[in-house]
Every structure is written in structure tokens, then in C-alpha cells.
Amino acid sequence: MKSERITGKAWVFGDNIDTDQIIQGRYLTILDYSEMASHALETIRPEFSKKVEKGDILVAGKNLGAGSSREEAPMVLKKLGIACIISESFARIFYRNSFNIGLPALLVKGISSEVNDGDILSVDLVSGNVENKTSGKILSGSRIPERMLEYLQAGGAVAWYKKNY
What we know:
By secondary structure, this protein is an alpha/beta fold. The protein has 8 helices and 7 strands, in the order E-H-H-H-E-H-E-H-E-H-E-E-E-H-H. The longest helix has 9 residues.
């Protein structure tokens, strides 16, 4: 896979952001993901869904996506225009669900202390490196597994399977 780079504005959140905080269970009856996305992270930042722009990057501390295994959590972030999620650690199912829907998720230790809201980040999905264009710092992340990169390139797991089987 050729070098894939995403550049966008950072939205920084803390540790232990669970799937119910990303999208509350009471909104799961909404069938339109775009409408559902208007409620993303509203218990933490009520203005988030109104201010996020296509190509922005969500940065979090440890244990992002814990809780129920709802695929809607990464889906609403993608529908809002989040281009990449970077965290110090992910709940396993949330991490996998992100790739399954074609949303890159990158592990970078110490990211939440090196990035502020509004910083411009440049993410190399192949190497795992993140450059904070605002501060000039380069952070080393974990490489994304090759199959997950293939999922991203295809637009998600379902698209990858349709193409390959």
C-alpha cells in the first residue's frame, strides 16, 4: 500500500470515553446515521457535532470505546467527517469496528499530552507516525496491521470481502 496521509484539525478528549458517551443508547433507534451523528459526544461536548469538520481527527487518552460493542459508535464519528481516530489505547471491539467501517484507528502512546484542541496533525497510516504541525513534534505510533490497511483502502471489511471473495 502506498503511503496514506491524513491531515486535519485535532479534537482532544480524555481517558475512558465509552461507546455510550460517543452515542447514547437512546439514539440507537434513529435509522439515519447522519441524524444519529448529530448527537455524538454530546454529553461531553454539546457543540462537537455542530463544529466538527470533514477531515478532522479525534484524539483520546486511554481506553477509547469501552463499553457495549455498538458499531454505531465509530460510525457516527465517520458520518460527522472524522477522518482518523488516534488514542493511547482502544477497547478491542471498538478498534476493530472502526476498521470494519473504514475508519482508521491509530495507537500512539502519550498522544493526549502532546496535542491540544485545534492543533493540525498529519498522520501517516502506513508508518504510524503523527506529526503535530502546530508544535513541530513527531510522535511514533504503532503500525496498522496490513489487513486493516487493506480494509481501509477498500472502504471497510464488507467492501474488502466483496472485492476478494
